[in-house]
Queue: 4 jobs
Job 1
Amino acid sequence: MTFCVYTEAMLTRLLDLFFPLSSLTGVEGTWLTNDEKAELMHALSTIMIPASHLQKHGCTELDELRAVMEYNATPLLHCAIHTWKYRRIRAFDDMMTSLIASLSVPENLERDCVICPVPLHWSRTWDRGFNQADILAQQLSISWQREVVHLLTRTRATGHQAHRSKQERWSALTKAFSVKKECIIPAEVILVDDIFTTGATLQECAKTLKAAGVKSVRGVVLARG
């Protein structure tokens, strides 16, 4: 045991030497400073978008969207989410779950409502090592006292969405999801993802769920782009 602890300490020192920690604003020695955490928390401003507004933008199957904040509320949010997802820095788990935990529970949730993270394709999960939507969903489950159920699977890889146009995003995601056959279909589902931009991902997930018998689908995200 002592040898393992010693070896781990030596490895950490070597990594710090060749790949020094650097925060979002360039402060060395940490991934996230207290000031950066405070700025992110200060940007919280719960956003609730009703179905009537979502429908005008093509999200006809989504009954509501709740976001922790606007994506442009602070430049630090862009950097934090990018570092978390694409640099695969798990040190940001706690910060991101703290943000999603700030959302209050809707008063009119169905008793059998479940929380469902937007799935990644298996190849993306294998490459990244985690699904950020699943981490957020697990925290929301604790906060809202609802079970996480992985109702959906991604039937094919759809590539990176970040640099695609709205039309390209919607086309890429058409029929990209399916409901797992062994799942019991609930009356209501809370779909969880990190960012809502064009709405293509949540729309396609909601469409798939409703085709399987779900009556109501709400979206919850960290940020609305």
Note: The radius of gyration is 19 Å.
Job 2
Amino acid sequence: MQTLNTRYPVLVVNDTRVDQHHGCNCVMTSLNRLLEMNGLDPIAFWPAHAEWRDNAEFDAALNRAALVVINGEGTIHHDRASGRRLLEVGEAARDAKKAIALINTGWEANGPALTKMLRNFDLVAARDTRSAMQMRKGTDTVRVVPDLSFYSVGLGENLRDRSALARSGIGFTDNVDRNRALELELLRRSISGRTVSIFSGDEGGYLKFLRNGLSLRQDPKNPRRAFDLIRLRHRLWVNRSPDTADFKYTLARLKFLVSGRFHATTLAVALGTPFMAQASNTGKIAALAGDIGLDEWRTSSNLTHQNVLDAADQGWSKREAENRKDYLDRARAESEMLFADLRKLVT
């Protein structure tokens, strides 16, 4: 009879910590903890964006692994090549006769070719109901498990008693879409809101960070716009923190958050901070809010100066507060159940 004393080697694919975002750090912290709790030992973390095909190091890790776990996050949408590259790992693992799971996955606007590739997986978990409904066109075994960032709140940190925190101020993040990020920044300046940077590292340095916020083909055509984007990226750089616990503490002390970042909203929900959201590069934030049972206006209202001020004074409704608590309880329970089932794939 197998027990948790029997450890199984796992290859983890799409380690998003290379993106140096606090949300990705939270996801990977949860993933590590849940693997450890279930006797699953990561032997390699394959970085996001890294090519795995025809790579001897990847092949060696795949040969050693009993289980391959792909952390889908927000990679698989609109038939992008990066999404296809992740899904192709499923076929490689199946050919190598390894158990294979795709977890923590958003899914949007992918065609039949990518959807068909889901059949290669032994277990598939979407992070929201909207994604799961689309993925079930490829396999009927898709379950919904909330984003793993929720599980990270409270792990190895001391945020003090959050109910006793004095909340103040309206915080603004950026958006992965630079055009929408600039809209948020202009609104922040009109309200004199606080810049909340989701970035955690400095790998590549300051100039690379500035450059990553620009389209070098388009933005130089409009010098004023380019200047505003550079100024925004500078603010994000100087307001970043290497400590994810500090980032959570910042969110926990805000009266209100305005965000175009998915993981800033997941952590705001977990920490009890009311928010309004601007759409990101997919509908993932609206899908999240729908699953929680939050008021629709949080992700569909026009983000104007007055709307933000009014929403900040409103806080959570009674219904939202109850739905939020229930969702957080489910997130923890379903994450633990998911990883227990991952172990079952190799026992």
Note: The beta strands are 8-15, 40-47, 67-73, 99-105, 123-126, 142-144, 170-175, 194-195, 256-260, 275-277.
Job 3
Amino acid sequence: MQGRRGGVEGTWYQRVLAADGVEALLQSVAPYRKRDPEDPDEEEFLENLFVVLRSLLLEKAACKEAFVGKEGLELMLKFLKKKCFARHSALKVVDFALTRSPEACERFVAALGLKPIFAFFMGKGLSKSDRREETTEAFTERVLAVIATLLKELGRG
């Protein structure tokens, strides 16, 4: 089977994995843990990077393994601990990474991911601008999804 571009075989996520695309995506996102985007175009670019990461995590277990292996969860935790622009996007990526992946859940707990998650659950750690009703509701819903996934996946052991 030939791909649409250049005769490369495989699905899009297989091509991304083969080209070490997870590492490239994480390296592209990493600078924004220390600084916020400077303009709306840069904000859109960063959000698009997070969308691609979430799309990869939806595909196959190999994508989650690559993400966890490249320390993607630890990077997302750095975003969660700082009051930065990308915090909501990082929380979504964490939610996608933990879903149906006990290994990722164990790694998340080992990386001390419960501290920021429970701080958000208790309403702490949100900046004043994040406390708008619609933002708080969506953020709380995502935090509850992460907690539910952790309880489901880690409850077996």
Note: The longest helix spans residues 133-154.
Job 4
Amino acid sequence: MKLFDLHCDSLYRGYTENQPLGENRFHLDLKRGKRLDRWSQCFAVWIPAELRGEAAMPLFDGCCEKFRRELAPYRSETFSPVLTVEGGAVLGGKLANLEKLADRGVKMMTLTWNGENELGGGADTALGLTPFGREALKEMERLSIVADVSHASDALFYDVAEIAEKPIVASHSNARAVCPHRRNLTDRQFQILRDKGGLVGLNFCVHFLREDSNAHFEDLLRHADHF
């Protein structure tokens, strides 16, 4: 089996719950991953809503160190770990912090979580990109950090789509036509992502698969078939 997974919380949880990435009680660990023929895994550093400004950086630094230390023995020709960030609040409103993320090897950043931050609004809001968010998007493209629009408000999605010159990604979002959750993508949004050369990663969370949350594997296939 070959797997390219654009998002998981195992790095954040491993750091905050003091669990190893090699073998743990989460949805995935590196020991189980050895069964795959090829595996590319994005490990996200989630920035909780209450962490703002300078308070977010120590969390990012700790997760980065765990990523570097614990994944090094597992790197191989068949396993490619990718460091990402979930939540632009990690920047603390400072463009210079994007250089730090790039230096640490971050390849993708979810611009918002569900609420607001300095870059703009998440899925629980109607806010688009702020002026700082527009500057940050341009700097991300310069540094080859991919913009992730999962968790974005509809307004922020269309702002990003309008000004982004490089492909954008929705790392964990399903089809709103199949399950009408605000976190899922409309057909128009999916078409924009496709036409810009971007990627969409299916979200296995049951709330985004079916309205009644009584989801099964077949529901994943429904979203894939729709896309």
Note: The helical segments are 10-16, 30-33, 56-71, 96-103, 131-142, 154-163, 187-195, 217-226.
